[in-house]
Amino acid sequence: MSATSVNKAVKKSRAARQAAKARTAVDVAKDQIGDPYRFGGTGPGSFDCSGLVQYAWKKAGVRIPRVTNAQYAGIRKKVSFSSLKPGDLLFFRGLGHVGMYVGKGKMIHSPRTGQTVRVEKLSGWRKASFVGAVRPGA
User: Fold this and answer.
1) DSSP H helical segments within 32-108, as ranges?
2) Tell me, what DSSP letter sits at residue 82?
3) Alpha-carbon distance 128 to 124, whole Å?
């Protein structure tokens, strides 16, 4: 086996492990649908936006920072809007909000006080206020 084919195999297995962890993180986040927003909430039972994604990725075996700006800065793998995969973290409004991409143009997030964890389409203000995205565990 050549060095090039070994490198390709390693990259494929690393990508497969990341994708499996991302599926777990998405499933964990979806299990929280209906839980109330609570500022500073890290679960279980209530979450703020960054607490939800941190909780989900932790359950998938990946540690990420607690707050949105640290999550964006601390995760090296940045991805474009057109390259999103389930599990990617999406940042909005000057890094003031984060959600997790779940596929098919939708994200899961814990929006704000008085609301609950839910899945929503990435359209309107969300798309207009998109700052960037990262891929945990990559």
Assistant:
1) 49-59, 68-74
2) G
3) 6
Tens digit of each residue's pLDDT (9 = 90 or more) over 9-63: 656 788 899 999 999 999 999 999 999 999 999 999 999 999 999 999 999 999 9
Domain at 3-134: CATH architecture: Alpha-Beta Complex (3.90)
Pair of tokens at residue 54: 């941190």
Rounded distance, CA 95 to CA 65, Å? 14
Q: What is the largest CA-CA distance in the chain?
A: 58
Q: Where are the domains of the chain?
A: 3-134
Residue with tokens 């209906």: 34
Instruction: Retrieve residue 87's tokens.
Output: 């599990």
Supply φ then ψ for residue 37, to 5 degrees: -70, 135
Q: If we measure between CA atoms, which residue out of 57, 64, 79, 52 comes closest to residue 134? A: 79
Element (H, E) at 84: none
Pair of tokens at residue 15: 């990508």
